[in-house]
User: Which sequence fits this backbone?
C-alpha cells in the first residue's frame, strides 16, 4: 500500500501539493508514483522565476527504465527549487513527501486548488 | 500434407538454372546447409513435435494466403563459397586504388595488423550485439570507455559518447542538441562555409525537416542575434585552414547559442582543442585512427560535449557503475533518454553506434599511445608543410598560411585539369576545390616518394627543383596544443605486440558473442555471419577507396551497388533502392523524407500526419518527428494487432493531412497480421503512403514482399536479414526500397551526384552509406540463391515456433496468430512470476547468463517480457539447450512459489554468478555453488562466465562517469 497522507492535495498525474500558506505551495511526486517509476536517477527541474500554467510540464523525472513528465498542479511562479535532488535523486524514492519535495510555487490562481483530489479521492484514483 | 506443393515445384524450377537435376534444396553440400542450423532430420523431428507433417503445411498455415508470393524470387542461382569469393575478387580488382589526397574528412591510414586480425577479422568481436547485457559485455564496454576517454581528451570536452554513424549526422545531432537546450524560441543555425560539403548537405536536410533556418557563411561574418541558437564551424576547415574561433564563441555565448566544432582527432594532437577555445560540442570522424577508407564507411564518428549537456547526448554512452559486490563495472548509461522510451518526444532517433569501428579507433590509441599519435601527427604536418613550401617554390600560391595536413593551392586558370591529370598518371587523386584551387591532404601513409611524385605532378613537366630543408611548422604558437592527452595508463601499458595481443584477447574473453552461444535477441536477427561473407571486407580493393574518388576508379563497387540494389528490389517487390542510409533509423528518416517530397511535388505539402501503431518500435515516432511529421498513435488490440476500426477512424479524421502510416511486418509482436493488405488500402484511400519497417523482413524473404502487400517504401536492415554482423553494436546499414512513384525523391549527394530527379536531401556523409560492408550482403545473396533465401525464412519461422512450442507450457506465450503459430520470434511472459515468486524479467534474463546464454530481448515490445528470435542459423541442439535452460529456470521459480526457496534470496535474485562468487571462501547462499555455476551439463563442457556480477543500474545513472576511472578502481577485476 502506498502512503497517501491526509493533509495533502493530489493531481491525477501523481503530483502532491502541500499548502504552505494561502498562495504558496510545495510540489512533489507521490509515494505511489515513485514506487511505479522505480530507482529515480535524475530529475530535471525549472529555475526560480519560471512561470507555469496548471497542467503544464514543469520538469521531467528519469528512472532506470522509464521517464516521465512532471505536470504543474496549479498555475504560478517558482519561488524555490530543491537543489538537494540534483546531488541525490534517490531522495525522491526514500522520502517523497519530505526531503524529496521538488519546487515551491507562488500561486497566481489559488482557486485552482479546488480541482485537485483529496487523499481519499487519490487513493481511489490509484486503486488502493 | 503432401510434399508436392507449389513450394516444391518452385524449388526445382528455380534452381534448375544451376544444376537442374537436383530437386531437393538441401543436403547436397551447398552453402545453404552451412547457413541453416537444423539438419533435415532435425526439421522432421521439430515438425513432428509440433504436429505438422511438412514445413510447407506449417508455412501455409501461418502466412496469410492473400499476401503469399508463390512465384520464385528472380535472383541468380546459388553459388559455392569459392565461386562467390572469386566473383568478389574480380569486383575488387575492378576498383582501382590510387593514393588519395582528397581529404574532406577521410584519410588513409594503417590498420595495425594486430588490430586487423584480432578485432576487425575476429568473430569474437564482430558477432557480438549491442552491450545491453553488461555482465557479458565488459570487454567491449571497456574498449568503448577507452574510446570515450580518448575523444574527451583530444577534444578537451568532458563527456563523449560511444560513437555515431558519421561526421555529417553527428553534426546534425549537434544542431539538434543545441536547439533542444536553447531556452529561447530561436530557430536559426549558422554553418561555416568551410565545413565539408557533405556535412552541410546533411545538416541542411535535417534542419529543413524541422523548420530550422540554416545560414551558410564564413564564421567571421556570423551574425549572432536572438534568432540564433547555434553555430557549426570546421576545425581545420575542409580546405585545411586553421582559424581561431575564440571570438566566434564569445559572440555566440553572448546570445546563449552553442558552438559546435567539426574536427579531426589527429589534428587535435597538435592544436588547441575545441574545448579549450570555447566550443560546446565537438564532432568528427575517427576513421583515420586505423579504420580503412572503405569508399565511405563504415567509420565511427565521435560526439563530445560539456558536462552540462551530458543528459542530452545522442546515441550510446558507456558509464561506470558497480556490481553487486561493489566492484566497478561498466554499462550503457542513461538509456531512458532513448527514443524507445521517449518516442515522439525524443530529440534523436539514433539507436546504435559504430561499435566495431570505435573499438578499432580506440585500440589504435592504445597501440600508439600519446607519443605515437603525436609523432604521426607531426610527421603528417611536416609533410604538408614541406609540400606547401615546394609548391610555393614552383610558383603557386598557398591559399591558407596556417594548416595541419591539408594544403589548398591556387593555380592559374586552366591548370587544374592539367595538374590533376599529371597526378592521375602517378596514381594519385587530388581534390579539385574550384576551377583555380586544388586541395592536397596528407596522411599517415604518405611517403617521401609520394611527396616527390606530388611535386613532380605540380611541376607539369618542369624539373621539380625545390629546397625543402628546414621548413618550419605552419601552426603558430597560439594555436599549438599545450595540454596533455591519453594520460590514462591504458594508453601506456600495451606498447609491445605481445601485450597488445593479450589485452585484446582478455577483453574478448569477457564477452559473449555468437562464437560461444545463441544470441536469441528478438527483433535483432542474430544469424550466422559466414566467414566467406566476411573475408572480402579487408581487401584493399574494397577498403582502400576514398568515398570521393573518381567514379571510373570504382567500377567494381558500381557493379556491386547495381547488383545489390536490383536484388533487394526483387526481394522487397519495389523498383528502386537507395543504399545511402547507414542504419535502420536513418532508413526510416530517409523513407519519410522521400514520402514528404512526393506529397510536396504533388502540391500537397500539408500531408504531414503520420499514423503509428502503439506497438511500434519507439524509433518510428522519433523518426517521424525528425522528418517534420506529426505523430498520431493508432490503437493495437490485445493481440498486438492494429485495431482496424481505430485505423479507419484516424485515417478518415486526418484525411486532409494524412502523410504516412509506419507499420512493422510481421508485427512488432512477431505476428503475421492477416489484415495488412486492408491496412494499406485504408491509408491509400485517404491519401497517405505506407512505410513498412523492415526490422522483421527475415520472416518475409521469399514468402511475401512489402511491395506486393501494398507498402510504398520499406527499409532493410542489412545487419539483420542480410548478414552484416552487428559488430557489438554497429555498424549497420538501412537502405530503403521504394515503389517507382517515389524513386525520383530518393536522396542524392553534393559531392558525388547520383542523378536523382528531385531528391529529398542527403542523409549520410557518404553517397552509398557504408560500402565496404556491402560485399557481405552481396555474398549472402549469391551463396544462398533464391531457394536458399526462402528456405532460410522457413527455417527461421520453424525455429521460433519450435521454441514457442516447447516453452509455452512453462512460460505463457504472449501473442500468437493463426493456429497458435507465431512468426519468426515469440514473446514469453514473465510478469506472473512477479506476484507468485517475486521474480522479475531481469532475474530470468540474468539467470540465463549462468546457463551461458545471451538473454533474449528484455521488456521490448512489452515490459516484463522476453522476446526470443532464434534465426535459421541455430541448430536444433542449441534450441533445445535454450528450452531446457528456460524450463529449468521455471523450475527454480516454482521452488520459490512452493516455499522451498525464499523470495529475494534465491538462485535467481543473485544471478548471474561470477567465478569469484562461487569460489569465494565464504558462501552463505541458500543453494549450492554447483547449481549456481554449473546449472546444466553443457556448462561444464563450455561456458562464458560473466566478468562481473549483476550491475547496479541506478548507481551508474546517478553518478555518471563516462571516461576511464583511475586504474586502482579496477582493482583485480
Assistant:
Amino acid at each position: 500500500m502506498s502512503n497517501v497522507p491526509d493533509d495533502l492535495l493530489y493531481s491525477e498525474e501523481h503530483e502532491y501539493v502541500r499548502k504552505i500558506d494561502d498562495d504558496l505551495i510545495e510540489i512533489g511526486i507521490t509515494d505511489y508514483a515513485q514506487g511505479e517509476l522505480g530507482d529515480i536517477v535524475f530529475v530535471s527541474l525549472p529555475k526560480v522565476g519560471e512561470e507555469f500554467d496548471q497542467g503544464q510540464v514543469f520538469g521531467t523525472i528519469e528512472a532506470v527504465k522509464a521517464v516521465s513528465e512532471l505536470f504543474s498542479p496549479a498555475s504560478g511562479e517558482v519561488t524555490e527549487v530543491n537543489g538537494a535532488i540534483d546531488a541525490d535523486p534517490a531522495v525522491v524514492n526514500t522520502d517523497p513527501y519530505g526531503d524529496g519535495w521538488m519546487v515551491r510555487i507562488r500561486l497566481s490562481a489559488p482557486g485552482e486548488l479546488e480541482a485537485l483530489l483529496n487523499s481519499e479521492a487519490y487513493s481511489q484514483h490509484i486503486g488502493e | 500434407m503432401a510434399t508436392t506443393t507449389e513450394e516444391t515445384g518452385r524449388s526445382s524450377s528455380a534452381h534448375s538454372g544451376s544444376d537442374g537435376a537436383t530437386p531437393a534444396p538441401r543436403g547436397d553440400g551447398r552453402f545453404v546447409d552451412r547457413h541453416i542450423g537444423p539438419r533435415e532430420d532435425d526439421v522432421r523431428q521439430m515438425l513432428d513435435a509440433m504436429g505438422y507433417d511438412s514445413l510447407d503445411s506449417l508455412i501455409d498455415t501461418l502466412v496469410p494466403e492473400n499476401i503469399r508470393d508463390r512465384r520464385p524470387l528472380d535472383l541468380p542461382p546459388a553459388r559455392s563459397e569459392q565461386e562467390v569469393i572469386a566473383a568478389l575478387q574480380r569486383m575488387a580488382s575492378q576498383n582501382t586504388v590510387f593514393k588519395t589526397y582528397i581529404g574532406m574528412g577521410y584519410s588513409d591510414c594503417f590498420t595495425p595488423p594486430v588490430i586487423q586480425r584480432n578485432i576487425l577479422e575476429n568473430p569474437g568481436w564482430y558477432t557480438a550485439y549491442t552491450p545491453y547485457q553488461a555482465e557479458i559485455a565488459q570487454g567491449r564496454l571497456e574498449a568503448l570507455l577507452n574510446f570515450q576517454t580518448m575523444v574527451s581528451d583530444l577534444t578537451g570536452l568532458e563527456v563523449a559518447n560511444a560513437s555515431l554513424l558519421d561526421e555529417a549526422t553527428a553534426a546534425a545531432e549537434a544542431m539538434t542538441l543545441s536547439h533542444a537546450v536553447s531556452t529561447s524560441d530561436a530557430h536559426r543555425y549558422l554553418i561555416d562555409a568551410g565545413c565539408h560539403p557533405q556535412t552541410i548537405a546533411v545538416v541542411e536536410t535535417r534542419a529543413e525537416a524541422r523548420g530550422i533556418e540554416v545560414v551558410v557563411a564564413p564564421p567571421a561574418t556570423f551574425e549572432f542575434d536572438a534568432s540564433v541558437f547555434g553555430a557549426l564551424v570546421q576545425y581545420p576547415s575542409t580546405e585545411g585552414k586553421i582559424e581561431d574561433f575564440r571570438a566566434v564563441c564569445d559572440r555566440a555565448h553572448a546570445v546563449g547559442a552553442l558552438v559546435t566544432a567539426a574536427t579531426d582527432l589527429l589534428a587535435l594532437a597538435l592544436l588547441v582543442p575545441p574545448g579549450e577555445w570555447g566550443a560546446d560540442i565537438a564532432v568528427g570522424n575517427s576513421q583515420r585512427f586505423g579504420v580503412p577508407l572503405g569508399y565511405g564507411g563504415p567509420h565511427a564518428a565521435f560526439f563530445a560535449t560539456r558536462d552540462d549537456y551530458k543528459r542530452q547526448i545522442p546515441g550510446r554512452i558507456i558509464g561506470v557503475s558497480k556490481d553487486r559486490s561493489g566492484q566497478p563495472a561498466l554499462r550503457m548509461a542513461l538509456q531512458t533518454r532513448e527514443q524507445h522510451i521517449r518516442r515522439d518526444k525524443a530529440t534523436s532517433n539514433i539507436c546504435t553506434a559504430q561499435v566495431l569501428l570505435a573499438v578499432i579507433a580506440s585500440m589504435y590509441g592504445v597501440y600508439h599511445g600519446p607519443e605515437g599519435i603525436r609523432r604521426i601527427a607531426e610527421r603528417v604536418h611536416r609533410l604538408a608543410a614541406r609540400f606547401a613550401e615546394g609548391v610555393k617554390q614552383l610558383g603557386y600560391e598557398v591559399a591558407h598560411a596556417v594548416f595541419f595536413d591539408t594544403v589548398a593551392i591556387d593555380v592559374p586558370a586552366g591548370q587544374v585539369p592539367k595538374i590533376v591529370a599529371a597526378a592521375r598518371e602517378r596514381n594519385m587523386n587530388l581534390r579539385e576545390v574550384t576551377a583555380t584551387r586544388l586541395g592536397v591532404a596528407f596522411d599517415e601513409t604518405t611517403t617521401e616518394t609520394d611527396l616527390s611524385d606530388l611535386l613532380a605532378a605540380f611541376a607539369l613537366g618542369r624539373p621539380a627543383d625545390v629546397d625543402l630543408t628546414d621548413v618550419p611548422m605552419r601552426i603558430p604558437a597560439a594555436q599549438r596544443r599545450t595540454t596533455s592527452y591519453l594520460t590514462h595508463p591504458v594508453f601506456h601499458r600495451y606498447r609491445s605486440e605481445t601485450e597488445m595481443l593479450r589485452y585484446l584477447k582478455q577483453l574478448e574473453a569477457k564477452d559473449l558473442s555468437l562464437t560461444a552461444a545463441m544470441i536469441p535477441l528478438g527483433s535483432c536477427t542474430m544469424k550466422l555471419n559466414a566467414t566467406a561473407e566476411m573475408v572480402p571486407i579487408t581487401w584493399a580493393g574494397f577498403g582502400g577507396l576514398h568515398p570521393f574518388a573518381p567514379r571510373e576508379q570504382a567500377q567494381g563497387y558500381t557493379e556491386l551497388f547495381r547488383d545489390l540494389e536490383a536484388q533487394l528490389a526483387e526481394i522487397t517487390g519495389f523498383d528502386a533502392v537507395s543504399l545511402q542510409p547507414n542504419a535502420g533509423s536513418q532508413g526510416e528518416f530517409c523513407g519519410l523524407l522521400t514520402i514528404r517530397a512526393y506529397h510536396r511535388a504533388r502540391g500537397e505539402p500539408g500531408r504531414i500526419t503520420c499514423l503509428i501503431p502503439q506497438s511500434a518500435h519507439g524509433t518510428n515516432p522519433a523518426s517521424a518527428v525528425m522528418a517534420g511529421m506529426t505523430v498520431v498513435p493508432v490503437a493495437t488490440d490485445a493481440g498486438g494487432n492494429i485495431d482496424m476500426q481505430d485505423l479507419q477512424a484516424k485515417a478518415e479524421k486526418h484525411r486532409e493531412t494524412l502523410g504516412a502510416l509506419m507499420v512493422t511486418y510481421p508485427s512488432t509482436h512477431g505476428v503475421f497480421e492477416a489484415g495488412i493488405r486492408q491496412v494499406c488500402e485504408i491509408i491509400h484511400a485517404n491519401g497517405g503512403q505506407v512505410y513498412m519497417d523492415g526490422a522483421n523482413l527475415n520472416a518475409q524473404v521469399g514468402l511475401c514482399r512489402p511491395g506486393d502487400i501494398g507498402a510504398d517504401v520499406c527499409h532493410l536492415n542489412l545487419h539483420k536479414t542480410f548478414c552484416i554482423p552487428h559488430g557489438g553494436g554497429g555498424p549497420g546499414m538501412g537502405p530503403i526500397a521504394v515503389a517507382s512513384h517515389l524513386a525520383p525523391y530518393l536522396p542524392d549527394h553534393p559531392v558525388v551526384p547520383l542523378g536523382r530527379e528531385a531528391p529529398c536531401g542527403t542523409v549520410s556523409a557518404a553517397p552509398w552509406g557504408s560500402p565496404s560492408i556491402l560485399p557481405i550482403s552481396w555474398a549472402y545473396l549469391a551463396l544462398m540463391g533464391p531457394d536458399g533465401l526462402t528456405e532460410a525464412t522457413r527455417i527461421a519461422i520453424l525455429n521460433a515456433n519450435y521454441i514457442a512450442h516447447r516453452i509455452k507450457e512453462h512460460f505463457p506465450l504472449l501473442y500468437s496468430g493463426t493456429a497458435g503459430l507465431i512468426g519468426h520470434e515469440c514473446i514469453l511472459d514473465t510478469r506472473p512470476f512477479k506476484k507468485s515468486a517475486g521474480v522479475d524479467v531481469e532475474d530470468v534474463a540474468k539467470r540465463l547468463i549462468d546457463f551461458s546464454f545471451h538473454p533474449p530481448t528484455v521488456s521490448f515490445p512489452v515490459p516484463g517480457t522476453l522476446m526470443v528470435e532464434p534465426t535459421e542459423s541455430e541448430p536444433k541442439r542449441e534450441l533445445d539447450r535454450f528450452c531446457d535452460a528456460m524450463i529449468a529456470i521455471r523450475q527454480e521459480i516454482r521452488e520459490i512459489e512452493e516455499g522451498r526457496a525464499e523470495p529475494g534470496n534465491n538462485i535467481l535474485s543473485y544471478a548471474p554468478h561470477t567465478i569469484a562468487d562461487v569460489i569465494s571462501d565464504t558462501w552463505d547462499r541458500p543453494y549450492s555453488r554447483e547449481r549456481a555455476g554449473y546449472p546444466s551439463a553443457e556448462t561444464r563442457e563450455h561456458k562464458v562466465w560473466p566478468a562481473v556480477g549483476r550491475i547496479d543500474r541506478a548507481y551508474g545513472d546517478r553518478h555518471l562517469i563516462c571516461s576511464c576511472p583511475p586504474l586502482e578502481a579496477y582493482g583485480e577485476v
Notes: Residues 713 and 738 of chain B are 4 Å apart (CA to CA). The interface with chain A takes residues 311, 334-337, 341-342, 859, 863, 953-954, 957-958 of chain B (CB under 8 Å). The longest helix of chain B spans residues 355-393.
